[in-house]
Predict the 3D structure of the following.
Amino acid sequence: MTHPLIDLRSDTVTQPTEAMRRAMMKAQVGDDVFGEDPTVNALQQRMAALFGKEAALFVSSGTMGNQLAIKCHTLPGQEVICEADSHPFNYEAGGPAFLSGVQMRPLPGRRGVLNIEDLQASLRAQDHHFPPTSLVLIENTHNRAGGAIVPLENMQQIHRFTRKHRLALHLDGARLWNAHVATGIPLAEYGRWCDSLTVCLSKGLGAPAGSVLMGSREFIDQAHRYRKMWGGGMRQIGILAAAGLYALDHHIERLAKDHKNAKKLAHKLAKLPGLRVDIKAVQTNMVMVDLEPSGLKSADLVVTLKENGLAVIAVNAGRIRMVTHLGVSSQDIDRATAIVEKSINQLINKK
Ligand code: TLP
């Protein structure tokens, strides 16, 4: 019997469920550029209320949400402080420089967490040699740190720091849902300690597309204008917003299953010779696997795994990433582990 490919590259690969597709099909729609799509309006209102923000804007992607936030919180020539492994710094195609004309100042974090002393030390004196700093960016859960949860206390500390120094604070909460389910901290509590945040509907929540940017009414009004300018004004987009609304009702609590599957995967992989997995570091739906003990290169392993029916991505030359999501069952985890074991043996025997 041939099995379908198990796709652990990302939680972005999910297929909309039958029930989600039905919700999309039945959605009432209108022209959202005129503000007349009732389903988009309902999603925006619901999201703003959930996160305790004045207003929300449905955007095409997490990248667009983050880039709009950077645009609205800064002026060209200013500086943005971020964590060195953060998504906006590493994976948004240089957007901050291109779209907002700002300079990014990456600070090294610890498992995605920015240290308050490093932030203090990064402050620049009032001197015309220096770029003025206007924004701090944080990320929770943290992607490159393997889905790590950034503690709320750290966010509160950074919030206090930004108030004191009159800086804006934006949270890239692409997978904030995962942090919320893992910690039990209410979504509004995360909303409370930042000026703006982006959350994605298209990752663990399983919608086919869409993210939501939230903040003050004035901030969202400005973001709305840039969204239009950047070609992101869409029309009868309630079809996609309906998937988001469906996900809010049905796909938040189930993230606990993804977290359980990720832990199961980590435990099983840690037992295989040649691999190193930091089980304690698996806090949500991602597992980072280091290949160093085996001497294998991730690029080779990725190809062999794919041939054997498992898709993963390489984070760097010696590390692969596996992400659990609603398309992955507990049995898939058993099968994925067997495929990893078989693939490592094949590659080692070839050497
Ligand atoms: N991340 C993707 C890839 O770009 C790496 C993934 O598969 O994890 N913030 C964070 C923390 C993200 O992980 C991502 C997507 C984004 C923003 C961007 O979201 P999209 O892809 O909707 O632009």
